[in-house]
Amino acid sequence: MNEALNAYLAEKKEWFDDQLAKLFDHASITPKLKNSMLYSIKAGGKRIRPILLFATLHSFGRDEKLGLKTALGLEMIHTYSLIHDDLPAMDNDTLRRGQPTNHVVYGDGTAVLAGDGLLTAAFQMVADDQRLDAAVRVALIGMLAKAAGPEGMVGGQEDDLEAEGKLLHLEELMSIHKRKTGALIRFPVEAAAIIAEATELQTEALIRYSEHLGLAFQIGDDILDVVGDEEALGKTIGSDLANKKNTYVSLLRVDGAKEKLAQEVKQALANLKELGFEDGLLGDLARYLEKRTH
Amino acid sequence: MNEALNAYLAEKKEWFDDQLAKLFDHASITPKLKNSMLYSIKAGGKRIRPILLFATLHSFGRDEKLGLKTALGLEMIHTYSLIHDDLPAMDNDTLRRGQPTNHVVYGDGTAVLAGDGLLTAAFQMVADDQRLDAAVRVALIGMLAKAAGPEGMVGGQEDDLEAEGKLLHLEELMSIHKRKTGALIRFPVEAAAIIAEATELQTEALIRYSEHLGLAFQIGDDILDVVGDEEALGKTIGSDLANKKNTYVSLLRVDGAKEKLAQEVKQALANLKELGFEDGLLGDLARYLEKRTH
């Protein structure tokens, strides 16, 4: 990984993880529910979505603190989606990042409620953000709800449920991913554009960047599932194939998926070039996604 | 029921039900997910929470349309809570209002997602409400999220889960209900106070009214579960007792619960008197809650 990117990721991740750990310090919440929510919040992860928001603000020369509460809300929503996705009613996964999933530790009922609680509190977080104007906050909330809701992530999860056991075409797979994982990768970039008062043209280029980046991210995950290092990945290599999931690798084989990944990264970078951002953190992030599978 | 209240309820319920049916007309949502959300949204119910919002606006001489989107968001959140509450992971109920519950019709996975989708889209609804200032919208969203989230309804549901099979004291039961059902009965009254620009004193009296009303509503439900008309109620009489749930009737017997109900209604009305609202719709609603169990 590029040294500047590495230093930025490490610094921001530490700062952000500290803030996450304090999420419910001043809230009056029944202990088991609070523990259940914090268990999954603290379970780690690369915090790639918040980092994207911070890196975009940074590219515009704006203070990352302006995006802190939005990033916290976003990570709460990402975390809730993992808790619900792992439920027996959904993917029925018992391990995530090498740890028992939420419902395994706290029971199915509390896991449902922990997800509901994180999702709900995420909007409270953004609504109460005193650093931003009310007009900016309602724009962010409307956009976050659209990205995470039935037209976005939740809709993609439903399509994914319905696609189980069916063989998809590449276009169908891309359409599901655009909502299931892409919407919450596009959101932080677009949110930062709003906070930084980007022009319409800048915002459009950033959105295109984020859409290519989102696909690159998903394709990279699929490749790593087949060729990756089991320990570094925190899950069983080849589990997607064993579960007969539709992935870019199952449709394009490893070589075709790598080629598709390279194309998406190239297009992401082309959009950054329009903004003069291709040599900065956002460019480094895109280039990193390609390198991590080689 | 009082004639003026009856006419108001019928008129507003019809208007509101029409709006609910059109909720996702212009949204691009995968069909099964949309059908699942609309199935529970259209499953009826008295729409008591939206009616409270409208009746409070009416008491201040304000147009009910100002509260429409907030009321839609509120009813979406109430509906999501019923879908998740009925899941096998929670209460495992197969019937609600005489109809199969959401997961029975659409499967557990889609029911989880339908609940998630309604909850998320509720905040989009309020954020996008062009009739209200951005500052009012963020205040409403923050308040709605707090009422519905881990410090409110979701917290009460968790306490309720943990209380299963335990014998509670009256104070504990009241504390659970204050969050589990009370928070979403208080919200519409407080939301209307914000929209109507009520004074601080007026708002405080309205909140006290809504808290007594919320308890009266719950106590009434518990009494009806034992002495009610099965058909009118849409569920099996005595099901709470059969499920060994803690209720006001199990703690106070029917006579004691009726006495407690009368006290709550009396206190609700005393707070309305401070506002000069006791003879209007809000007073009628409180008086109706007492009468419906006699």
TrEMBL record, chains A, B:
<dbReference type="GO" id="GO:0005737">
    <property type="term" value="C:cytoplasm"/>
</dbReference>
<comment type="similarity">
    <text>Belongs to the FPP/GGPP synthase family.</text>
</comment>
<dbReference type="InterPro" id="IPR033749">
    <property type="entry name" value="Polyprenyl_synt_CS"/>
</dbReference>
<keyword id="KW-0479">Metal-binding</keyword>
<keyword id="KW-0808">Transferase</keyword>
<protein>
    <recommendedName>
        <fullName>Farnesyl diphosphate synthase</fullName>
        <ecNumber>2.5.1.10</ecNumber>
    </recommendedName>
</protein>
<dbReference type="InterPro" id="IPR008949">
    <property type="entry name" value="Isoprenoid_synthase_dom_sf"/>
</dbReference>
<dbReference type="Pfam" id="PF00348">
    <property type="entry name" value="polyprenyl_synt"/>
</dbReference>
<dbReference type="GO" id="GO:0016114">
    <property type="term" value="P:terpenoid biosynthetic process"/>
</dbReference>
<keyword id="KW-0460">Magnesium</keyword>
<dbReference type="GO" id="GO:0046872">
    <property type="term" value="F:metal ion binding"/>
</dbReference>
<dbReference type="InterPro" id="IPR053378">
    <property type="entry name" value="Prenyl_diphosphate_synthase"/>
</dbReference>
<keyword id="KW-0414">Isoprene biosynthesis</keyword>
<dbReference type="InterPro" id="IPR000092">
    <property type="entry name" value="Polyprenyl_synt"/>
</dbReference>
<dbReference type="GO" id="GO:0004337">
    <property type="term" value="F:(2E,6E)-farnesyl diphosphate synthase activity"/>
</dbReference>
